[in-house]
C-alpha cells in the first residue's frame, strides 16, 4: 500500500511545475483575451462594384417626377411651399430638381460627409497598446523557472489640449465643406437662371423673327407685283429677297438657340433632354419690366450671404486653430507603461515613461512660424474677398441702373413705333397709303420689339449680377 502511495506521489506534479503550469495558464488566458479583442471588429468591408452600363441605364431613365428626384424634391418642395410635381416648371421648381440631381452638388455633399467622418477620427482617443514579453533563460539557476512572462500597457497621453484643438480644426473643416455645398448649390442656381433667361430670350426672339419672315415674304410678293407693273426696279426686289434670306437665317438660328438652351438646362439639372419634353417650362417671369429698389442692403447681403466671404472667415478660424495646435506641440506627449512581469519566479510591477521627446534641438519653431504666416495669408484673403464682394455689388448695381435707362428708352421707342403703325393703318383704311408702306411700318414695329427684348435681357442679366453678388434672390431682398 505504501508502495502504491509512493508511486502515486511520484506521478503527481511538483509544486514548481504546478506554479509554472498556473502561470502558463494565466499567460494563455491573456493571449486568448487579446485575440478575442482583435476579433471583435464592428465594421467590415462592403463591396460596391460600379458598372458603366448600370450607371448609363439609370441616367437614361431619370425623370423629374419619379424615382429619387421625386422623393428628394417632395421633401424640399414642402419646405419651399411648392406643390410637387408642378403643372408648370419655373426657376424655383427646376432649382429644387437640380438640388436633388446635379452631380456637382452631390459631389460637394459627399465631401461634406467625408469631413464629418473626419470629426469622428479627431474625437477618437488613441488605444492603449498591450505588450506580452516572453523570454526563456537557457541556463537558469537550480530551482528557478527558465521563463520570464509578463504583460504591460502602453497608454498614450495627449497633453496641452491637443485633442480638443484637433477636434476644433475638424469642425471648422466641416463648416467649410458645408459652405462649399451652399456655394456649389448657388452656382447651379445661378447657371440655371441664366439658361432659363436665354430660353425665354431665344423663344421670344424666334417668335418675333418668324413674324418678320412672314412680313418679308409678304413684302416680296408686293414688290414682285410692283415690278411686274413697272412701278419699281428689280434692284428693290433683289434687296428684299436678301432681307428675306437674312430673316430666315436669323429665325432658324433663334430656334437652334432654343434647343441648345433646353439641352443645357437638362444637363445642369442632371437628366437627359427627353426628360424635359413632357413638362411645360414657364419663363414669363423674365418678361417683367418692374424696377428694383436698390440700397445699401445689397452690400450688406454681399457680406452676410456670400459663400466665399463666409468660407474666408472659416479658413481664418482654421488658421487660428492650427497655430494654437503648433504652439501646444512644444509640450511633448506622454506614454505611460504600467506592467507586471514574472521574472524567473520573481514577481515585478513596473511603470515606464516612453516616447518623451526632449526639446534639445528645436521647440517646433519652424511649424509655428509657418502657421503664423498662413494666418496672415488667411487674414489677407478675407480682406481681398470683402473688397471683391463690395466691388461686384457696386458693379452689379451700376449695370442695373444702365440697363434700366436703356430699357426705358426702348420702351419709349416701342410705344412710338406702335403709334406710327396704328396711324399708318388708319391712313391705309382712308386710302392714303399702300400695303408696302404698311408692311414696312410693321417691320419697324417688330424691330422696336426686338430692341425692347434686348434691353429686357440686359436688365435681367444685371439682376442676375446683383443676385450673384449677394448670392441671394432679389425677391428675398425686397422682402427684407
From TrEMBL:
<dbReference type="InterPro" id="IPR010131">
    <property type="entry name" value="MdtP/NodT-like"/>
</dbReference>
<dbReference type="Pfam" id="PF02321">
    <property type="entry name" value="OEP"/>
</dbReference>
<comment type="similarity">
    <text>Belongs to the outer membrane factor (OMF) (TC 1.B.17) family.</text>
</comment>
<protein>
    <submittedName>
        <fullName>TolC family protein</fullName>
    </submittedName>
</protein>
<dbReference type="GO" id="GO:0015562">
    <property type="term" value="F:efflux transmembrane transporter activity"/>
</dbReference>
<dbReference type="InterPro" id="IPR003423">
    <property type="entry name" value="OMP_efflux"/>
</dbReference>
